[in-house]
Amino acid sequence: MKNIKAGLVGFGTVGSGVVKLLKENQLVIEQRLGIPIILKRVMDLDITTNRGIELGDGVLTDQLDKILDDPEISIVIELIGGIEPAKSIILQAIRNKKHVVTANKALLATHGDAIFKEAEKNKIDIAFEASVGGGIPILRSLREGFAANRIESILGIMNGTTNFILSEMTNREGKFEDILRYAQDRGFAEADPSFDLEGIDIAHKLVIILALAYGVRVNPEDIYTEGISGITLPDIEFAREFGYRIKHLAISRDEGSQIEARIHPTMLPFTHLLSEVDGVYNAFYVQGNAVGTTLFRGEGAGMMPTASAVVGDLVELSRNITRGISLRTPALSYQRKSILNKIIKNINEVITNYYLRFSVVDSPGVLSQISGILGRHNISISSVIQKDQKIEGAVPIVMMTHQAKEKSIQTAVDKINNLDVVLGRTVLIRIEDETLEGKHNQEQVIS
Amino acid sequence: MKNIKAGLVGFGTVGSGVVKLLKENQLVIEQRLGIPIILKRVMDLDITTNRGIELGDGVLTDQLDKILDDPEISIVIELIGGIEPAKSIILQAIRNKKHVVTANKALLATHGDAIFKEAEKNKIDIAFEASVGGGIPILRSLREGFAANRIESILGIMNGTTNFILSEMTNREGKFEDILRYAQDRGFAEADPSFDLEGIDIAHKLVIILALAYGVRVNPEDIYTEGISGITLPDIEFAREFGYRIKHLAISRDEGSQIEARIHPTMLPFTHLLSEVDGVYNAFYVQGNAVGTTLFRGEGAGMMPTASAVVGDLVELSRNITRGISLRTPALSYQRKSILNKIIKNINEVITNYYLRFSVVDSPGVLSQISGILGRHNISISSVIQKDQKIEGAVPIVMMTHQAKEKSIQTAVDKINNLDVVLGRTVLIRIEDETLEGKHNQEQVIS
Q1: Domain segments of chain A as ranges
Q2: Distance between CA A217 and CA A209 in Å, rounded?
Q3: Strand boundaries in A271-350, DSSP class E
Q4: CATH class for domain B4-134+303-338?
Q5: What is the pTM of this model?
Q6: Which candidate, A236, A6, A282, A238, places its Cα nearest to that of A125?
């Protein structure tokens, strides 16, 4: 085989990065792979905008079939995102015996089953490192590097937008709305940022992580998902006083009969490695029963980091093509017959520590009413801060609890919210503590 | 193929971990690979010591040929370490068409060429993830995840022993000798620790990293290597005052026509991610021209993390064996014809910032004599600390320099050491600054 020919569908930001990278790093890619990768066609509906990137004569096209029907092209790179037409394009590519590289987490998280089944039927490889963690080789590491491990837990900062906003709120003491606008101006947040802010993007990525790490098939809507728009400066400040930072965290744990998987703003102690992962960086804190705890950190999005993952996948698939093999490694890391529809632990059953901020009237007996309700629900308090300064006309009482069940907390907080002395909705932020992590560590079979 | 049969040579600590891991994680390994991996034979000269690990009847043997001559065994795991007989065993395994998994960095760094050539000739795969960074999948990530990148630089903490000692000296303010004894008692340092302390182990690992990252063939003795036994508490304390921690760092950079590669105690600013990697952890700070900066961190040694890498390699090789292929990916990441004998930059040509501690008599004019010599060698000083308290009878003068050439620094320091007012040898510690890293960042072609 003299070379590998690929076709790119979607000439947007990441698509442009892929074109750039294949050109600029052509030499080193060929030094590793042994033969060159040639981008024969780039398809986009918009073929007039000047993207500042030179393509050879006849490479740019608005005709999809110039890629899907070209027998010379053995790999299709899908970078248009969203469900349709991406899904139909990928399925058609598979049926035309073309291997696929994609960064489309939304599609894989919601229609992955159909795509992976069709790919296996046609003996076609689907590579998708770029769908999670940008340039960080986290999916590969779960699939290959940690193949000998039972993965026990993964904590992830998986969305650059929410991490950037929370970091800037924390470091520059800016309000959510102001920082969001600043992020949008700098291109770190979309014009319509709800997909990121509400955690939907993270849920899609977590579905993929859950499959590769634990061998489970999960729908994104089964994952408890809470966004960051409720986080305010006073909570960031109180967290700091207690020695914590607030991060938009994806949490997953293998608990044997069920999997814990949830996404929400989380208080992490300063000493936790993830607490200082700021800005547009992503990071994964992975615990395996042999390898122990490991950390992967890097840029989780952006043109070139994402292109790095896409072209890395191109090289990987090319290695299989030159060898005449496919499906060497199961795309989802586990053999299809071993993938389970495991139950995700209901959020009500989760046991963790909580931060609660009550907004109350400034009168005697309030603290006793609140702590009385908590006590009756078996919630034990580890520390309390009550301050003079008012927030929006109310006095804040802040409590940190020992481990408690989510259902008890929610019931107690509902009752507290109904007290006459309580002026606003109670703020609830879950805590991921080192001590808690320690507890999980002790469950290791191997150590 | 119903299963993969492997033979293990070397039933020591890591060997025992491999046996344990294959047994305890048997299910999850088979769920990923599709078929079981069976450890058919374990060979060790000592077959009487009870290691607390059960082996099936007839598995343990002191006969090497029970592994090397068994046609059923397709993978040989070499975990005895050292040059001979490890080298002969691996070469014989290759000639007998058995794929090889090894953790033997000393062997690969000094005789890798002969082994990889023989392996290619026989179409045999050599896997060695466990040789660098314990359970951290750093070699795989360089070879696969970052295949599309030109690697620009790697800073690594690659030896758990020296990192443990420096961390403990820093955090508990203990003397080198005391901490070393403490580490030996806890099994974090060998009875004869010179291999680790002098940086020889790191040099072996760096040879492997240099090959995979930059495609160069280097001898360990070509790498400037300095151990940590000269580091004293006053220097750790002065470093802290300036905002730095001292780490035993492996530094490598692609400078185009030559490669910078050196190992020595290094001052890293508190803000550098590697400055807080403590204890037995290893970490790699990798910069690629597309992916940007990434960090990998995990346990760099120990029974189970190393076994995690060994068995991960077993799974990887098994995937090739079941497909009937080999040499799918070049072991050293680059095709043989692209591997260069690039020149390592002479340490005298290195340009960096320096920490200098002079031990002088307490008399007027000393500072002017010292700074005069530095000035005549074009070394400019960024800050000075002079303190009242004496160290071993001498007054310390501590200076941080702006960027200077190593040769100028060494010449100047030699002259200063010869001054009558200078009582002891000047301490010199190189600094790896963020600003310096920044300079390198700007050299990126792609950003």
Answers
A1: 4-134+303-335, 138-299, 349-431
A2: 10
A3: 281-288, 292-299, 343-344
A4: alpha beta
A5: 0.96
A6: A6
Hey, is B163 helix, strand or coil? Answer: helix
The CATH class that applies to domain A4-134+303-335 reads: alpha beta
Angle at Cα A225 formed by Cα A156 and Cα A431, nearest 5°?
A: 60
Q: How many CB atoms lie within 10 A of CB A397?
A: 20
Q: Are B252 and B210 in contact (CB under 8 A)?
A: yes
Residue B437, pLDDT > 70, answer no
Sort out which chain B residues have CB atoms less than 8 A from A295's CB and list them: 295-298
Tell me if residue A205 is catalytic. Answer: yes
How close is the nearest chain A Cα to the Cα of B284, in Å? Answer: 10
- Would you say residue A445 has pLDDT above 90? no
What letter represents residue A136's amino acid?
Answer: I
Residues 6 or more apart from A185 whose CB is under 8 A from it?
Answer: none
* CATH code linked to domain B148-299: 3.30.360.10
Rounded mean pLDDT, A29-42:
98
b/e string for A310-336 if b means 16 or more Cβ within 10 A? Answer: bbbbbbbbbbbbbbebbebbbbbbbee
Question: B161 and B351 in contact (C-beta within 8 Å)?
Answer: no
Return the percentage of chain A with pLDDT > 90, whole number: 89
Q: What is the largest CA-CA distance in chain B?
A: 83
User: Exactly one of A98, A205, A247, A342 is catalytic; which is it?
Assistant: A205
Crossing angle (nearest 10°) for helices B105-121 and B200-214: 40
Q: What architecture (CATH level 2) is domain B348-432?
A: 2-Layer Sandwich (3.30)
Residue of B40, B66, B98, B205 marked active site: B205
Contact B146, B286 (CB under 8 A): yes
Computed over every residue of chain A, the mean pLDDT equals 94
Q: Torsion angle, CA of A370/A375/A380/A381, rounded to 10 degrees?
A: 20
Q: Note whether A305 contacts B297, CB cutoff 8 Å.
A: no
Q: Output the average pLDDT for chain B.
A: 94
B333 contact residues in A (CB cutoff 8 A)? 32
Q: Is the dihedral of CA A66, A67, A68, A71 positive or negative?
A: positive
User: Quick check: A25 and B273 CB within 8 A?
Assistant: no
Task: Compute the distance between CA of residue B154 and CA of residue B47 in angstroms, rounded to an integer.
Answer: 42
B221, containing H or E segment: none
Contact B295 A290 (CB under 8 A): no
Looking at this protein, which amino acid is placed at residue B193? P
The string of pLDDT tens digits covering residues B397-408 is: 999 999 999 999
CB contact under 8 A, B273 and A29: no
Question: Strand B99-102 vs strand B126-127: parallel, antiparallel, or unpaired?
Answer: parallel
Q: Is the ipTM of this complex over 0.90?
A: yes
CATH domain A349-431 topology: Alpha-Beta Plaits (3.30.70)
Question: How far A447 CA sits from the closest chain B CA (Å)?
Answer: 7
Which residues are CB-contacts of B67 (< 8 A; sequence separation ≥ 6)? B7, B8, B9, B41, B43, B61, B73, B76, B93
The CATH code of domain A138-299 reads: 3.30.360.10
Identify the H or E element spanning A252: strand A244-254
Dist CA B151 CA B141 (whole Å): 12
Before B269, cis peptide (omega within 30)?
Answer: no
| B307: chain A residues, CB-CB within 8 Å | 148, 290
Residues forming a β-bridge with A269: A244
Q: Contacts of residue B133 in chain A, CB cutoff 8 Å?
A: none
Q: Which residue on chain A is closest to B300 by alpha carbon?
A: A291
DSSP letters along A2-38, please? --EEEEEE--SHHHHHHHHHHHHTHHHHHHHHSS-EE
Fold match flag (B4-134+303-338 vs B148-299) = no
Contact assessment for residue A289 and residue A147, using Cβ atoms and an 8 Å cutoff: no
Structure tokens at A399: 């409590």
